[in-house]
């Protein structure tokens, strides 16, 4: 098919590569404007833009697609581009811009979204992290026919991905990205054969995956150890979980932890023990064992190394 691809981060790049490998004609890629990155805050292209440039594909980076919005000239230029390209379909993956109705209506087969959850569970911005945080045993990707709502369109195809007890958001992201690439390729192949029937999302089971907030990084030890351990995995790598330990001025990042099935006869946040096996923290329900940590300005350290350089007050 002749398609336009709209996406920005690594999750989207993997789908873009899968579509190119499947032989689809992609004359235009749309992605977010370059952002400052790194210590020097140098303007850096998105992973999707870099992949498109490497493939010699035209790239558009409008700040908005709303013809009546803050950047109407950029939206109008994008419209001219899309009309010139005349795609069969637009594939959207973590693009970062809201698509107004004129975009949804322009491709012959509309716009298809690769969403990183099994809809209608975890509509919204952070489905990968929220699935881990909630203790879901599985998630997946849904290929959805986009409409004007927030991830409310009809479903075309799903791929299930399990979530294990030690799965981090980074690991789940990578697994879902691969699944998303496979799913969109399979969806387009089926559409070419006329073999897919759109399915409306059920009204039951709708949940929303709120955008991640840096304020969530701080672990609240009044919560249960099980929830805190899941949050450590859900926020790895972004925004990264953190905790305050005695004897240190700054919070410490926690990259790996586990919930122990034992009672904590101390106030939440108290250090129960600290040795090469782990740092045990009392919580509102159970004990959280810290296993990999990072001091401010330092490197990640396994707990046996960390405790050798830490003197609790």
TrEMBL record:
Source organism lineage?
Bacteria, Pseudomonadati, Pseudomonadota, Betaproteobacteria, Burkholderiales
Which reaction is catalysed here? L-methionyl-tRNA(fMet) + (6R)-10-formyltetrahydrofolate = N-formyl-L-methionyl-tRNA(fMet) + (6S)-5,6,7,8-tetrahydrofolate + H(+)
Signal peptide start-end: none
Protein name, UniProt field:
Methionyl-tRNA formyltransferase
GO MF, one term, reads: methionyl-tRNA formyltransferase activity
Q: Which residues bind (6S)-5,6,7,8-tetrahydrofolate?
A: 117-120
Which residues belong to any copy of the Formyl transferase N-terminal domain?
1-187
Organism the protein comes from: Achromobacter deleyi
Main enzyme class: transferase
Q: List the GO cellular component terms.
A: cytosol
Q: Which residues form the Formyl transferase C-terminal domain?
A: 211-309
Concerning Gene3D superfamilies, the annotation shows: Formyl transferase, C-terminal domain, Formyl transferase, N-terminal domain
Query: Sorted alphabetically, which PROSITE patterns does this protein's record hold?
Result: GART (PS00373)
List the NCBIfam families. Answer: fmt
Query: What HAMAP family does the record tag this protein with?
Result: Formyl_trans (MF_00182)
**Entry function:** Attaches a formyl group to the free amino group of methionyl-tRNA(fMet). The formyl group appears to play a dual role in the initiator identity of N-formylmethionyl-tRNA by promoting its recognition by IF2 and preventing the misappropriation of this tRNA by the elongation apparatus.
Originating gene: fmt
Q: Which InterPro entries match?
A: Fmt (IPR005794), Formyl_trans_C (IPR005793), Formyl_trans_C_sf (IPR037022), Formyl_transf_N (IPR002376), Formyl_transf_N_sf (IPR036477), Formyl_transferase-like_C_sf (IPR011034), GART_AS (IPR001555), Met-tRNA-FMT_C (IPR044135)
Which keywords, in A-to-Z order, does the entry hold? Protein biosynthesis, Transferase
User: Family assignment?
Assistant: Belongs to the Fmt family.
What EC identifiers does the entry list?
2.1.2.9
Q: Does Protein biosynthesis appear among the keywords? A: yes
On whether Transferase is a keyword of this UniProt record, the answer is yes
